[in-house]
């Protein structure tokens, strides 16, 4: 089990590094070299519209299918081809309906936001939604097959081709339309590659003479709470952007999206770890090994906060020079948003190692309730805070709502596994002390950071202190890290 997890984690982390580097280069290139803040905001406002539409184009089908594949590939492999075929049929129907609707009503959507520049971007929405939906489908199914390295391949191909396509099209002078087309090409190439692999994988299973009675019904039924969870994700990740676009300016959208993208860069290791270990919780539970599952969650939680609490503290301290030297003075409005989102990074990292685990432990419905309730709360808070305090209000709303949701989900894990809340709390307290010490030293050294090189040196000092404190306190075993 340990070797399987490590292999999957290495592959997923490698893919996340490629994704993070590709998105980082794209973010800096788009914001610094090719697009103005208004154009940057318009591009990602369009992508937010598409991302919100993806809720309806998937309906929780990929994750529901992955859950049943993980079960049936062990108990009744002959049902796996029926699962894949049925899910593809359901997915194709809803995907095409949503894609057609966005394409047909693209002008109406642009008018709702009062942004005429959105219309030509939204016209490409059908193609974007179809490519992204299929890409997400194959990536998630490989997790259900426990072929984590295959999911990693799809991620690498998608992000590498997206980077090359976007930059190549921008260099031709095609502007915002070219950037969006580059994203579509990247998702489409990853989807095609994944579908080819999926076809070969399913061909290895001998199909049963007929599908198990009620199999398709259970597949759809389990997708419903997952759809609620996905809907809450849309609220957390996209609706705030849409509301900023409706209440404020495209430049404000640009500030907010930039801050979110920076937080997304930092979250890559937690995404890799959570994606890798989640199927194992289902295996442990099926075998009655709850103690082992609890120890795995506690260890994962400890190493997660060891990294992310200090990272959040450091980001709060260096947000100003980071934006000033990397993205330029046009994006200084993003600084307070980034500082608020530092707390969001901590909550999101914990969610990454908890969220999918609840699905594989059979608690998708309860997780959906917590996520749906806090998502509705987030939406209402956004309606109050965005018009009153602007783009920072959206960040505050997300942090408060996400923190409540994470607390509830940890409680749900505790009801399933015999984890020790005292152990988790002790890890957080010890790491917080390290983070405060590191941040204080960085803050004192920050006046010496007068350019990007000296800023990197100050950040390096902070990282060195973090590593030293973490090892000497016993939170990190250097021998285990080296091995």
TrEMBL record:
Subcellular location: Cell membrane
Keywords: Cell membrane, Membrane, Transmembrane, Transmembrane helix
Pfam family, one: Polysacc_synt
InterPro entries: Poly_Biosynth_Transport, Polysacc_synth
Primary location: membrane
Entry GO terms, CC: plasma membrane
Keyword Cell membrane: yes
CDD domains: MATE_Wzx_like (cd13128)
Bilayer-crossing regions: 40-61, 82-106, 118-138, 150-171, 177-199, 305-325, 331-347, 392-412, 424-446, 452-476
Top-rank taxon: Archaea
Membrane topology of this protein: Multi-pass membrane protein
Name assigned to this protein: Polysaccharide biosynthesis protein
């Amino acid at each position: 089990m340990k070797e399987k997890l490590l292999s999957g984690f290495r592959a997923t982390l490698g893919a996340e590094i490629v994704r993070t580097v590709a998105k980082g280069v794209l973010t800096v290139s788009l914001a610094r070299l090719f697009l103005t803040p208004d154009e940057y905001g318009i591009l990602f406002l369009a992508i937010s519209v598409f991302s919100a539409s993806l809720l309806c184009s998937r309906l929780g089908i990929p994750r529901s299918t992955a859950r049943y594949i993980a079960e049936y590939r062990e108990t009744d492999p002959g049902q796996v081809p029926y699962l894949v075929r049925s899910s593809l049929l359901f997915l194709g129907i809803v995907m095409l309906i949503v894609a057609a609707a966005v394409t047909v009503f693209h002008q109406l959507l642009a008018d709702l936001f009062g942004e005429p520049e959105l219309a030509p971007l939204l016209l490409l929405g059908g193609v974007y939604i179809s490519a992204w939906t299929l890409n997400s489908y194959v990536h998630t199914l490989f997790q259900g097959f426990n072929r984590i390295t295959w999911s990693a391949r799809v991620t690498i191909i998608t992000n590498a081709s997206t980077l090359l396509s976007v930059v190549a099209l921008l260099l031709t002078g095609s502007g915002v339309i070219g950037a969006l087309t580059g994203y579509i090409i990247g998702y489409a190439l990853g989807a095609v590659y994944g579908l080819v692999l999926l076809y070969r994988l399913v061909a290895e299973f001998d199909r049963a003479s007929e599908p198990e009675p009620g199999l398709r019904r259970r597949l759809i039924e389990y997708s419903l709470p997952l759809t609620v969870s996905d809907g809450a994700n849309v609220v957390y990740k996209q609706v705030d952007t849409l509301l900023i676009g409706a209440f404020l300016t495209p430049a404000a959208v640009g500030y907010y999206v930039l801050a979110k993208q920076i937080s997304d860069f930092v979250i890559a290791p937690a995404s890799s770890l959570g994606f890798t270990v989640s199927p194992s919780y289902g295996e442990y539970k099926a075998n009655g090994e709850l103690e082992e599952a609890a120890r795995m969650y506690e260890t994962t939680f400890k190493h997660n906060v060891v990294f992310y609490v200090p990272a959040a503290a450091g980001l709060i301290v260096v947000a100003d020079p980071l934006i000033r030297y990397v993205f330029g003075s046009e994006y200084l409005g993003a600084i307070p948003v980034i500082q608020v989102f530092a707390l969001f990074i901590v909550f999101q990292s914990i969610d990454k190692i908890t969220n999918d685990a609840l699905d594989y432990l059979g608690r998708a419905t309860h997780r959906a309730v917590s996520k749906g309730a806090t998502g509705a709360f987030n939406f209402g808070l956004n309606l109050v805070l965005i018009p009153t305090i602007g783009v920072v209000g959206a960040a505050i709303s997300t942090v408060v709502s996400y923190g409540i949701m994470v607390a509830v989900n940890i409680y749900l894990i505790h009801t399933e596994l015999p984890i020790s809340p005292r152990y988790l709390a002790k890890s957080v307290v010890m790491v917080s002390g390290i983070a405060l010490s590191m941040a204080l030293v960085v803050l004192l050294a920050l006046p010496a950071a007068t350019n990007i090189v000296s800023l990197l040196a100050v950040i390096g000092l902070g990282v060195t202190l973090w590593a030293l404190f973490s090892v000497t306190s016993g939170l990190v075993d250097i021998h285990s890290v080296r091995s």
